[in-house]
# Entry
Amino acid sequence: MDEAIRLRWVLRDIRARRFIISPLDPADVQKLSQMGCIEIHNSLPILTAAGMDEI
# Structure
């Protein structure tokens, strides 16, 4: 349960581009990438349609 909440907040941080101010945990980025919620473009995480659905 805690992990799901944390990952949802990470998705919101990515959508709002707050990761520029506060770095993301690489483990969270890897988990969300494996889940298909984000993609990495030019070293920046971008939400996919699945990621937007999770928010």
About this structure: The longest strand covers residues 38-41. The chain has three helices and two strands.
